[in-house]
Amino acid sequence: MEIAADNLRLFIERIERLEEEKRGIADDIKDVYGEAKANGYDTWAMREVIKLRKLETHVRQEREALLECYKDAIGLTPIETAIRNLADGGVTSIQIGNDPPIDFAPLRTKQSA
After folding, report:
1. Are 105 and 93 in contact (CB under 8 A)?
2. Of 102, 99, 71, which Cα lies nearest the Cα of 86?
3. Residue 6's domain spans which residues?
4. Of the candidates 92, 68, 69, 97, the residue with the CA atom closest to the CA atom of residue 82
5. Residue 50: inside a domain
6. 110 inside domain
7. What's the sign of the alpha-carbon dihedral 56, 59, 61, 67?
8. How far apart are CA 102 and CA 72, in angstroms?
């Protein structure tokens, strides 16, 4: 039985050392996030990108497509939001990507007249 006890103690000591190393690595990661934040980076977005990079390409694409589908369904896409705001009178122009802004003010004036 003593051999089994010595063996068990060795396993436990190895696990304890690894746990200590894990805490050290976690502290290092926390420091890197703090450094990134101090340089103006959004750490939430960084964490999300890291999660995405861990996924296989096809899994990531499936999740992104499903998310876009859900966002479209409830009107959370930028164009849908802009159209809804335009209808409510809250937006007079929109800009999509690097294209020049589309001004809706003249259209509103024509509708009012």
Report:
1. yes
2. 102
3. 2-94
4. 92
5. yes
6. no
7. negative
8. 21
106: tokens are: 């003249």
Instruction: Outline where 39-56 has alpha helix (H).
Output: 43-54
Q: How far apart are CA 103 and CA 24, in angstroms?
A: 55
Inside any domain, residue 75: yes
Q: What is the pairing mode between strands 102-103 and 93-94?
A: antiparallel
Rounded Cα distance between 7 and 1, Å, is 10
Interatomic CA distance for residues 56 and 17, integer angstroms: 32
Give the H/E segment covering residue 102.
Answer: strand 102-103
The verdict on pTM exceeding 0.85 is no
pLDDT 10s digits, 24-83? 999 999 999 999 999 999 999 999 999 999 999 999 999 999 998 888 888 777 766 666
Instruction: Report the domain count for the chain.
Output: 1
* Cα torsion through 85, 86, 87, 88, rounded to 10: 50
The CA-based angle 5-9-13, given to 5 degrees, is 175
The DSSP symbol for 100 reads P
